[in-house]
Specification:
Blueprint (H helix, E strand, L loop, with lengths): L17 H12 L3 H17 L3 H15 L1 H8 L10 H12 L4 H20 L1 H7 L33
Helix pairs in contact: 1-2, 1-5, 1-6, 2-6, 5-6
Length: 163
């Protein structure tokens, strides 16, 4: 599978996880699933797919645990998977992870929040919203930095810029 700029997308998450990832994104970011779209899911898959195998396994385990009926039941006494809950219940459930007395849950919340934020702001929609340059992977030499002559013409560290 290729993305919009013909880069291969490694899918560490099966297609069935798409609805879970979208529900996590909607709950954490406050952006409706329709607006997040497939680009958001592809960014998560691309990022997680680029990690070492043991980290991919840990993140898949975290998402599976977060979505599990038993985990939801332990936190908010509803025996449903996370992605099927209404938004207000998902937010309540997310808050229990964020404020948990168990460090593993708080760390899991931070990991999911970071993953969702990174995926959204790396996607085309998120980049447009921020007014950023969009995808920069593979374009490092084209993107102005603080060391480039564009921002600091006298810098001895600034290299030659492409025009």
């Amino acid at each position: 599978m290729l993305d919009k700029v013909n880069r291969p997308i490694t899918r560490p998450f099966p297609k069935s996880f798409d609805r879970i990832l979208l529900a996590v994104g909607e709950t954490i970011l406050g952006i409706p699933q329709q607006e997040l779209g497939q680009d958001f899911v592809d960014e998560i898959n691309r990022y997680v797919g680029s990690l070492e195998p043991y980290l991919r396994k840990d993140i898949k385990t975290l998402v599976t645990l977060f979505n599990s009926r038993i985990s939801v039941f332990m936190k908010i006494l509803t025996f449903k998977p996370f992605h099927t809950l209404p938004l207000d219940e998902r937010e309540q459930y997310l808050d229990t992870w964020k404020t948990s007395t168990i460090p593993l849950f708080r760390t899991g919340y931070v990991a999911l929040r970071s993953l969702a934020g990174w995926a959204y702001y790396s996607s085309e929609k998120g980049a447009e919203e921020m007014g950023s340059y969009g995808k920069t992977i593979g374009k490092e030499k084209e993107t102005p930095t603080l060391l480039s002559k564009t921002f600091y013409p006298e810098s001895p560290l600034a290299g030659e810029e492409k025009t």
